[in-house]
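hi! just following up on the protien thing from before. the input was this:
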Amino acid sequence: MDIAAKQRELLDELGLFQDWTERYEYVIGLGKKLPPMPQDKHTEDRLIKGCQSQVWLDAEFDDGVMRYEADSDSLITKGMIALFVRVLDGEKPDAILQADMSFIDQTGLKEHLAPTRANALNLMATQMKQRALEHAAE
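and the predicted 3d structure came back as:
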C-alpha cells in the first residue's frame, strides 16, 4: 500500500466518527498503540523543536526504507505523531519526500487543537521528511 492509500485509509477510519471528540480519542488510541520507544532514545537530538509537548522522533534507513519510532510526554501529541508514523513508516525516502502531507488538514483535528499543537503537526511532518532527505540518495 502506498502513502496515498495509507492516508485515504486513515481518513476513512476517522470519517467513521461524527464528533471531533471521538476522533480525538481515536488518535489518542493510535498513540497508545505505538511500540514503546526505549528511554535511551529520548535524547536532545531526537526532540522535535517547537512542539508544546516533548516529542521524540528516531529514524533509521533499513533495507531501502525508512523506519520511524516516536514518543511523546502527551497522549494527544503521541497520537498525532502516530498518524505520521503509520503513513510513512516502511516507505522509501523518495516517496516520503514527494508525499503530500496536507491529508492531515482533512482529519479535522487542527480546528480543535490549540494553535501550538496544530503547528506541531507541521513540525512533525517536516522532521520526518528531513530524516528521509538524509537518506534519499542512498
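The CA atoms of residues 24 and 109 lie 7 Å apart.
The chain has one domain: 3-133.
cheers
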